[in-house]
Amino acid sequence: MLQKLTWISTSDIKDKRVSSNMGSLPYNGCTPNELYLIQYTSGATGIPKPVPVTAGAAAHNVRVARKAYDLYPNTVIVPWLPRYHDCGLQFLLLTIISGATSVLTSGVDKGTQPISLWSLKNLIIINEPIYKASVERFVEMFRHFGLSPSCTSPSYGLAENGTFVSTAWRGNCSNGESFPHIPSHNKLLPCARLASQREEEEDMDIIVVDEDTCELVVDGMEGESWVSSPSNCSGCFGHPSLAREIFQARVLSAQAIEESSKEKKGFSM
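Structure tokens predicted for disco-interacting protein 2 DIP2 -related (269 residues):
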């Protein structure tokens, strides 16, 4: 299968030509609906599944992330995740979209070298769950290096939506308080920021539903996060039933749930 692929060299792209087993061919980029990459979902909460990401979905996802993190050409991005990780790749795409500078690093080991964090604007945190006390201890430990509590960016993402979904980061604060704009819930730092007063609402719908009934839960209750957006992937290779379950889910109304319950009990409708 790999022998049939067209390998693209960056030097060839400059001339809008690519080399293949058929010689030199014209190259005009890919369309939004063309397959961009296949990435595996995390195996932390289930069986890893390959999900296809189109070029349009990837472009939409990084545009939303760039806007959420307020990235511009004068931004310097310092990612440490490997480039084969979905977030590691996301940082490279964010660099391209925002015109920023990216300094690629490996995982940071403990050391004694002096560091300065006075210019740090965004410290993106993507582990699950994000404990408020742990982040506060980290901020307190690095406060004398210039780390501001306002730069912490608890964030959420998943491979089925490209990568990025939401962040609780709100920008700089003036009073220096810990997490002045990030409320906590059950000792956790939420990651959601659907829209702000100074931004237009993105075309990304996020709801929380009851995992068993597929009914919307009331605010403050735990549930399963559902995301509908142009960033959505287009299925699961080799798992058609899971693809229907994950990418074609629908919210049930209270009436539909009641009717379904009656049918199970043998009531005629």
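The chain has a mean pLDDT of 78.
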